[in-house]
Each structure stands twice: as structure tokens, then as C-alpha cells.
Amino acid sequence: MMTIESIYKNIQTKKSFLCVGLDTDINKIPNFLLNFNDPVFEFNRQIVDATHDLAIAYKPNTAFYESRGYEGWLSLERTADYIKSNYPEIFLIADAKRGDIGNTSKMYAKAFFEEMEFDAITVAPYMGEDSIKPFIDFKNKFIIILSLTSNKGSADFQMLKNCENKNYLYEEVIKKSKQWGTAENIMYVVGATKSDKLKKIRKIIPDNFLLIPGIGAQGGSLKETIDNGKNNKGGLIINSSRGIIYAGNSNNFAEKARQQALILQKNMSENV
Amino acid sequence: MMTIESIYKNIQTKKSFLCVGLDTDINKIPNFLLNFNDPVFEFNRQIVDATHDLAIAYKPNTAFYESRGYEGWLSLERTADYIKSNYPEIFLIADAKRGDIGNTSKMYAKAFFEEMEFDAITVAPYMGEDSIKPFIDFKNKFIIILSLTSNKGSADFQMLKNCENKNYLYEEVIKKSKQWGTAENIMYVVGATKSDKLKKIRKIIPDNFLLIPGIGAQGGSLKETIDNGKNNKGGLIINSSRGIIYAGNSNNFAEKARQQALILQKNMSENV
Asked: Cα-Cα-Cα-Cα dihedral of B176, B181, B187, B191, to 10°?
């Protein structure tokens, strides 16, 4: 069972905010792994074994698993099971960006919180409170609501200004949704490419954890992100995917991944 | 390969706008099906066989399959394969409400358009253009963008007014996203509980098909929906899920489902 306290303890022990994104593409993993029964799981297993002392969280991205059909879904299940069985202190996030009407969201919650042992799932807020609530209703689990994402398209709708109160949509999402739960079950996705806006967001939600994508491949600055985003419980889960998991492409890929994770963790440790 | 013309032809031949939502919950299907190797697939197969001449589309809702792990995903694959192999005229929609950064959305598109043979997928617009584009880039496939949904929570964000032009967010989503493709690859989700707004939406997008949930269980009026929403190519795919598939709960469940589908199709036929 994960709580803000247990995540914070991990941040302190490991001196790290690091989340490793398992965006595992079977076409990008080292060739020799294709001899394994489940190459994607084997890749993930070796990455996790090589980096677990540097990371507080792992975040499989469901799209990469679904793209391989039920076999991919099996790789996802095996990965989740392996991580929670061997490294129970790890915060396990399903990057799934789900969200639908109530009875459907409940099914998604079952998929990730019951059928698998994820601690958290990313959710899209467009359909509002009753699309989010069924996830929150699961005890001792977290939802991570998209607010301000790191991609170019975030400007299309998230930056629209609500006429009533001049809030941007992403602020409106945070301000409304924070009332639907507590810091013990709601976190937010905030893109690291928007470091200037982090301070403002931190004032609205001083206690909620923020999941920060966009370090590395998407180009956000690490130090700035930590300075603007951290709180008195750590408050940050900072993700890197491709920069770590594809650091090498031969037999020593896991060692190469560790080297990259170590660089990030060292930079983080100075600011924990 | 599905086009607006082929969907329209089906609407005319079958005198129907009906889409049957396959929100198949293993806990709600008749008990005797549990003796089958894949009870959910068997349920779907019998529903489809009993209703295919009345429906122009089927819409499995991915949450219900994911909630059963990889076995559920297998049921989904078998269902999609069965429908496209036996009833190739059917428009097959994955109700998945996906959407993520570009390289991730591409993986979702692969999952549903390549690994399975879906003709269309529902997508959430919150992350903007680059989260939608990878789906549009697949030739001869459709995306169905959430605009105005039928649930209570649709009021939370979709009804916010953009300060710049006084558009509601859902209008903004439609007006921006319609420029990212054409009526041959973009459709929109518009809840039937919002019939009063359908006319306005139809003026903004005269040519795009609309997927209308909320008939039946969610309480929208059928005639009003058709009057306000149809265009010169039909333009409507009207979904009913629970009202049809759970009409019966014994050996004759498929026959009961057909009876309900027939009632809807007859009401539709008067207005096609």
C-alpha cells in the first residue's frame, strides 16, 4: 500500500524523484532479446533490476503493450507483477490516460487496480467528475490527472481561458478536480517544458504530487523543475523514458540504462 | 475499407442508424455461457449474429475487456475478428477514448487499426492536435473525437466558455479539430441527452458523422436526435448498449436483444 509518506520516504532514501517510463517498443529493443519467450518483459525485467535502487517509480505506457495485442497485454501484466513482487516499495503507474462515463471508468479502474497491481493510473479530465470518481473510489490508489501536458498540442485546448474567471483550462481542471479527492489520492501531470507555470500550479495545490514528463527527450530543465515544483513531502515524480531505456542497444543495454538513470539521480540528489 | 458512402449505403439498405455497444460484462451475461471457452466472445458472437441485419455498427467498449486482463483482450480480438470476417459491411468502432503524445498515440492507432481491424476509434481531445494526428494518418480509418458527452460531468469542462470568442470548449474542440482532417476521417461524439445543441453542432460540421451515445439507458430522445442530427449522407451512428445486450438473461438472450434492436431500428426507419 502506497501513501504520500511512503513515497516521500523513498525519495529521501534513494535521493531521487526518478520515474522510469517503460515505453517498451519491441522494434527498439536489442535483437538478442527476441530469443526470449517474452522479449518485452525480459527487457523490462533487466531494466528494472538495473535501476530499481535509483528510481522511486516505474511507468509502463499502455499503448506500447496494446500495440502487440493480447501478447503485449501479457507483457504488461508480467511487468507489473514482477515489479510489485520484487520491489514492493516502488510506486507503479499505468500511463493509460483513460476516462469515460462512470460504469466504464469503473471497469478501467478494475483493470489496473484489481486485475493488475498498479498503484496509480493517469486519467484524462475531459469528461468531468463522474469520469474520474470511480478511480478515486478505489482505496489506497492514486489517480494522476492530466492538467498541463508537455506536448505542442497542449496549447490547443489546455491554454484556453475560461471567460468566467480568466483561468486557463488546465488551471480550471486542477481547481475543480482537487475538490474531488485529497492529496492522498490525486496527483497531476504537469509537463516539465512548462517550468514557468509550475510555481503557479504549486500554489494552487501545495500538497499534491506532480508527475513530470518531458525531462530528456522532451527537453525540460531538471533543476528548474525541482526548484519550482518540490514541496515538503518531495511532491515530485520526474519521468524519463527513452533517454534511459534506449541508452544502449546491445547485451549491455541494462548497464547503459543504469548509467543514464544514475546521471539523472545524481542531479536530482543535489536538490532533494 | 469503410467510407462515408459505404456507411450511408448501409444506413439506406438497413434503414437504420443503429450501433450496438458491446459493453460486455462477464458478470452480467447469462450463466450458461460460462461453460464456453470464451464466454464473453460467445455472448458477443450470438448478439452480433442476431442483430447484424439491423445494425450498421458495433462498438466494443475496451474497458470491459481490459477489466479481465489479457483474457479480456483476447475476447476483444476475437470479437473484432469475428465481426469483420463475417459481416464486412459493419462499421467497427473501438470505444477506447485514447489520446497521448504523438509517438504514443501512434502505438494506440497500431493496436486498433493494424493489430485489430477496427474501422474507427474514439479519442479524447485534451492533449490537442499532435495527440490526434497519428490516428488520422492511418489511411481509410476514422477517428471519433469526444466533443459533447452525455454524462453529468460533461458540464465540468466541456461547457466552459472560451474568453476569446465565447465558444464553449466543446465547440472549440470541433472547430479546431475539423481542420485536422476531413469528414472522411473525422467523426464526433455528441451525447443524445444534448439534443438542443445538435442543431448548432450540425451547422459547424455539416458533413461529419456524429456518434450518438445516450439513447436508452442514458435517456436521450431518438426522434429529436435524428431530426436535429441527420445530414444528406445519413450522418448519424446512434448507439445503444445495455438496453439491447442485456434485454434477456437466459438461453434466449440473443433473441431478446434482437427484439430490442428491432424496436429501435423500426423507430429509426421512419426517419432515415
From this structure: -10
Please tell me what DSSP assigns to residue A251: T
Q: Do B160 and A155 touch (CB under 8 A)?
A: no
Taking the CA atoms of residue B128, residue A239, residue A221 and residue B134 in that order, the dihedral angle to the nearest 10 degrees is -30
d(CA A33, CA A48): 15
Cβ burial A110-144 (10 Å sphere, 16+ → b, else e): bbbbebbebbbbbbbbbbbbbbbbbbbebeebbbb
pLDDT for the residue numbered B110: 98
What are the sequence ranges of the domains in chain A? 4-269
* Per-residue pLDDT reduced to its tens digit, A174-193: 999 999 999 999 999 998 77
CB nearest B130 (choices: A132, A152, A163):
A152
| Catalytic residue (one of B97, B178, B200, B256) | B97
pLDDT at B125: 98
Does residue A266 register a pLDDT over 70?
yes
C-alpha–C-alpha distance, residues A222 and A240, integer Å: 11
d(CA A93, CA B108): 18
- Does residue B139 carry a catalytic annotation? no
**ipTM metric:** 0.96
pLDDT one-digit tens code per residue, A109-163: 999 999 999 999 999 999 999 999 999 999 999 999 999 998 999 999 999 999 9
- State the pLDDT confidence band at B7, using cuts at 50, 70 and 90: very high
Quickly count: other Cβ atoms within 10 Å of residue A49's Cβ. 14
| The architecture CATH gives domain A4-269 | Alpha-Beta Barrel (3.20)
Catalytic residue among A97, A176, A178, A256: A97
